[in-house]
Amino acid sequence: MPINELIEKLKEEHAAIPGIIDDAVITYKTGNLSGAFPVIAEVRETLSQHIIDEEGILLKFLIDKVGKEAAEPYIRILQDHPKIMKLVEQSVESTYTGWTETESDLNLLKETLAEHHRQEEAELYPKVISLL
Fold it and tell me: How far apart are CA 58 and CA 5, in angstroms?
């Protein structure tokens, strides 16, 4: 897939993920823990591929074009990925076990993703597009 199309796909995922998390919260609030688990597991699957695309394609492209030193500000943005995936795993686990922290885990994940996605769309994606 061409990089500009990949970026559009990633932006679409940014827009869709908060709604999926909201669905998990609503499902959880209705007491349907077994129904909330697959919803948040979908977020995990989407974000796993999303991270692979950003790090394996966009970051590699960026480093190839400008070098590692010049790519450092964008590398810092992507260094949030392990923290995000830890929140995802924590959310999946709490949904699966029925811990009372599920809703707060999901809300923290949603807030963290919103800030991270804002940085990617304001800084990383425009830089990559400028180098095409």
Answer: 12
CA–CA separation, 47 and 120 (whole Å):
14
Task: Record the pTM.
Answer: 0.91
Euclidean distance between CA atoms 28 and 42, whole angstroms: 15
Environment class of 61 (CB within 10 Å of its CB; exposed 0-12, middle 13-18, buried 19+):
middle
Which residues neighbour 8 within 8 Å (Cβ) at sequence distance 6 or greater?
none
Q: Which pLDDT tens digit goes with each residue over 79-118? A: 999 999 999 988 878 766 766 677 788 889 999 999 999 9
In angstroms and rounded to an integer, the radius of gyration of the C-alpha atoms of the chain is 16
Nearest Cα neighbor of 50 from 92, 123, 113 is: 113
Nearby residues of 56 by Cβ (< 8 Å), 6 or more positions away: none
The answer to whether 20 and 39 are in contact (CB under 8 A) is yes
